[in-house]
Each structure stands twice: as C-alpha cells, then as structure tokens.
Amino acid sequence: MAMQLNGVWCLHGQNGCQRMKHGKNVIRAVTSFQNNNAISEGKVKLGGSDLEVTQLGIGAWSWGDTSYWNNFQWDDRKLKAAKEAFNTSLDTGINFIDTAEVYGSSLSLGAINSETLLGRFIKERKQKDPTLEVVVATKFAALPWRLGRESVVKALKDSLDRLGLSSVELYQLHWPGVWGNEGYIDGLGDAVEKGLVKAVGVSNYSEKRLRSAYQQLKKRGIPLASNQVNYSLIYRLPEENGVKATCDELGISLIAYSPIGQGSLTGKYTPENPPSGPRGRIYTPEYLAQLQPLVKRVVLNWLIAQKNVVPIPGAKNGEQAAEFAGALGWQLSNEEIEEMRSLAKAIKPIIGFPVEKF
Ligand SMILES: NC(=O)c1ccc[n+]([C@@H]2O[C@H](COP(=O)([O-])OP(=O)(O)OC[C@H]3O[C@@H](n4cnc5c(N)ncnc54)[C@H](OP(=O)(O)O)[C@@H]3O)[C@@H](O)[C@H]2O)c1
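YS: structure for the whole thing
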C-alpha cells in the first residue's frame, strides 16, 4: 500500500499527491526511509545508545505554557486538547514525547508544568493499558545559579517526581551553561550510572561543544545519544555550522525542534492571517509572504530524508497529532528533496538561539 501510494506521489509531484491523499494541507512524515540507524519499521536507535524511538516524536512545549504559546492563557479546553494530542499520538504509534522542566514554568502566570501534565496523561492511560510504553525525553535547564554535576541529578529527580516516573528514557542538557559544561556533562553520566535515565543528550550545542561532550562521556563508556537543535526547511543552520555533519560522523542522532517552523510551514498562517502572540514578531506578514512557495509541502518528510534526523513537531490537539502520524510510510524522491531545498534557499532564515553559534 505504501509503495503504491509512494509511486503515485512520485508520479504526480508533491502538490498533486497532497490533493489526492487528503484534499488539504498535509505535513507527511516518512517511516520507511532507509536510515543507517533503522532497527525496525518506524523505529530508530538514538545515536550509539540502546534507546529505540519512533522516527518522529511529539513536542510538548505548548502543553501548559503561558509564556510563548496559548495566547498567554491556559484553560480546561486547552488541557483537553493537549491530552487528545497525547492520546492520538499513542493511538497512531508515536510514543516518543519531548518535554522539559522549564516548559509551563511556574514563573509564568497561570501555567501548568508540561512534565506534570505529561505525567498525568501517562498515568491515566496506563490505568486503561498497564502495558503502555511511553518514551519520555526531558531536559535539564542550565540556569546560571546551578553549578556542578549534583545539580543535574537533583533536577532530574524533581522532573521524575513531576512525571510520576522512576526513570526517563532520555535526559538532555537544554542549552549550554554559561560558566562551563564539564560538570553538567558529568551529571548526565551520573544519571545514566544511577539508572535514572536510559540515554543522555544535549541541545543547542555547537560542533565544538558537541565533540567535547562526546569525548567526555566516551571516557566513561557512555554514548552521547542526541543533539536537539532547531532544524527545518527554513532553518538549516545545522547543515552550515558543522552540527549535522558532526552528528553523522560521531553517530549522534539529530533531534529537530521547531520542524514545521512553529506552524508557519503548514499553510495555516498567511500574510493576511499571521500568528498572534510572540510568534507574530518572528513570522511577520512580510516573512510569511516569502514562505508561500514552501508551505503545504511535506516538510517533515524532507527532514527525515536528510537521514539521522528525528523531528519532534509540537502538537496542541488530536487533529494536529493525527496529521503527523497519519503521514507515516511516505518517501520523497531525490528530485523532490532537492526541489524543496532550492526553494528554501531563496528564503532568509529566521533568527535562531544565539548559543548554538559558539
Ligand atoms: N531544545 C530547545 O531549545 C527547543 C526549542 C524549541 C522547541 N523544542 C521542542 O521541539 C518541539 C517542537 O517545536 P515547536 O513547538 O517550537 O515548533 P513546531 O513543532 O515547528 O510547531 C508547533 C506548532 O505548529 C502548529 N501546528 C502543529 N501541527 C499543525 C498542523 N497539523 N497544522 C497547522 N498547524 C500546526 C501548532 O501551533 P498553533 O496551532 O498555535 O499554530 C504547534 O504548537 C517543542 O514542543 C519542544 O518539545 C525544543
């Protein structure tokens, strides 16, 4: 079935296939891609670790957040929608969920911590299905007053309390620390040795930092499983700054965040209908006008086609989650991959997180 559809896809080109399959905008993903790390259909090994994840994960930043998402307000309707996003993901086979201790931070009025919500969703679902497996990734915030390796294990234990779990599958350093990183990386290693996590990763790491963290963990026999960075058709810095090549060279998975350009690549937003809130300052009508040739394209497939990439699009509701998952099993042709890249090259990239540049 997938092959047959794939043939149609290639024959008719991208927009033709989109119309044929759904008659509306789709953001399809590919699970059948021949990835070096592929271990079973739809799953990949995360870097050199033993951790298996779905080829696509779901980002939970918006769950409970009132600082960037949700028009600064969280309510029961949004909670119900986030729970549907979680449940729909699991129903469709995607069980890799990315959160962080700072998502839905209590410093923001009315917020509910994303880890707390995820923990509740897991607990409720497990009551119905005790065999349920959820692959949880969370992150340590390298806040300037947090020093040394002990701070990592302490923060992780607090995260586990919020999640209601005794361990998580992946623990990541959310961003590099301002005073140095050796202590934090030692802390990640300690977390593995204490059995609190299966695998460890970093985020927003440059090539230089990546190599150093990799070597430091290697001395303890622990693989650096992943580097989570901003990567999409409209933000291809990892291809230009050596991060993608270094991930490939060292066998570190690249987890791509904001893979659908925070919604801007979906066709939902247009110059006449830009996003509200903080996103509106990035995805301005002028920028959205430039983006139009790229929207309604299969941007997640494109990322997976770059190999060694696990995109984690954010889903706020069941419909969005279903759209990611309902797309599994497709593969772009080489011509389509290159066509999309050349269209993207004509568009000025958005501004990223400055720390990844050092
Ligand atoms: N490590 C880091 O520093 C870092 C930074 C950023 C993100 N992340 C992680 O990466 C995840 C994803 O990144 P992101 O949330 O920034 O951006 P994204 O995945 O590119 O965009 C997510 C947003 O796009 C919109 N959307 C989702 N599905 C859609 C669909 N089918 N049709 C139309 N719109 C759709 C939703 O917002 P609306 O419905 O409001 O439009 C959703 O919140 C986060 O949840 C987080 O886990 C990590």
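YS: worth flagging: The longest helix spans residues 2-21.
IM: good catch. Also The first strand starts at residue 38 and ends at 40.
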